[in-house]
Amino acid sequence: MSRFPYGSLALITFLCMGIFLGLWVPGLVVLFSTGVWTSLGHMVDVFRGHRSARKKRAAVTALIGTCSIFSFLAVGLLAGMWHPGWVIILAGLAVCGLIDACWRVGGRDTSGGCGEKAAEDTMDSREG
User: Fold this and answer.
1) Is the CB of residue 64 less than 8 Å from the CB of residue 99?
2) CA-CA distances (angstroms) from residue 77 to 15, 27, 58, 72, 87?
3) Residue 51 domain flag
4) CA–CA separation, 119 vs 113, rounded Å?
5) Domain carrying residue 78
């Protein structure tokens, strides 16, 4: 997935849309979608490579953050709704925080997160 030349195709599409059709602003949306494609490719590579839970969580939250910024730019550029578009970025941050918290509480984080701490506390309370 990461070998597909999406960035080059997005740049060519942007230039063709702008030069031949005069659609520079919608072309920017196509150009900015490169970040989403790159984050998606990174996430697929991380999950395919059986990486650690911390790297998987980072890849998922990076994709959500990139998608929220891309959505904000798309709404602002295409609809001119820059001010209400900030809600998209705040919602993306909230979802990233929720995923991070759930991942840690669920015990999937092996980097000393909340999941391990809660399991250690439970074992300590049973012993004592």
Assistant:
1) yes
2) 17, 10, 28, 8, 15
3) yes
4) 10
5) 6-127
